[in-house]
Amino acid sequence: MKKTLVALMVVSMGACGGGSESSGPGGTGGGSAGGTGGTTTGGTGGASTGGTGGTSTGGTGGAGTSGAGGAGGAAAGGAGGARDGGAGAGGSAVSGDAGGTRDGGAGAGDAGGAVATCNQKWNFDTNATGGLPAGWRSVLGAWKVEADAMAASAPNVLRQSMVVPGTQFPMVLVDGVNAGDVTVRVKCRAEKGMGDQACGIVVRAQDDKNYVVVRSNAIEGNIRIYNVVNGVRGAMFATKDMLTTVTANAWHTFELAVKGAAYTVKWDGVEVLTTMNTMFTSGKIGLWTKGDSISAYDDFECAP
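Below the sequence we write its predicted structure tokens.
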């Protein structure tokens, strides 16, 4: 009888507990409001840097099967859970979309939904021409490393040379980066285009259809910031006219710094635009063009 009572007490205690089944020390496992708790196996519960584990409100907590070093849960606000299987280097949740991991296996310190830091530089000079650096993925367009005698840092550039009319935008993403607060800087040169001569920086990309882009356009002579949600570019929510300084066929240094909801844009080292944007909290980084723009990029870098 005593053994039976002890067994019942153990079962009862196990059924009540949230959190991860086999989580190590770290963030708090489990969804915060009624969600299923924690990671299922292996990974450290909670966000990667001091955050609260699981989803923030009501989602299903944690990734379904997080790998070693991976952290379950959405970064902030989205519904948790793995989108397509194991914990990987996927983006965080889109507002109201499924969060957690997206496509692939466990990443080294870059788990789906976790906010990582980025401190890398790509000058494309050691990459084979005709392709992309390792970990880069062309979403749309003809993105290739090419030799260019007029490169900002010789001998190579990354060039996008496909005309894409309509509301689809050429874009390349760095799949191995999932950053929240980050500064992204690139040298860009808009080379050709009758309708557009654009350069663009992508941050906080959840996937191919949900991201924030800041773009320059030498034909319009301006810089603008847009949210793209479910593949639809919304109305621009910040703009700066710079007719005499946003020019084609010259190298310019384009920079976007995001910290929390604060966005700061610099052009050739001068701060030109600031705004607030709460659409996304973390995600991939990348490059972007528009319409018939033929644009070259060099010295692409990110820093915390």
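The mean pLDDT is 73.
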